[in-house]
Here is the input.
Amino acid sequence: MIAVEGYIYKGAEENVPHSNNCFELLSFDIILDKKADPWLLSTKKNPNDVPDCVLADVLILIGIVPKEKRVDQNRR
Here is the structure.
């Protein structure tokens, strides 16, 4: 991540008028060796095979909550 941070920041700065309303989902393929040391195999920008549960978690993290999980403001 540190190696590409400058490129991501510059791209967002040039193309996104409000940087706090933008995010990018990255995919990391990692394996563990016999000593349980992690090895990074690849990194993908905008992965197309992301499970729905991951996308749902990302949306919740940025503040978009599904209607059925919202707290009813009138019940308070």
Residues 5-15 form the longest helix (11 residues). The beta strands are 26-32, 38-45.
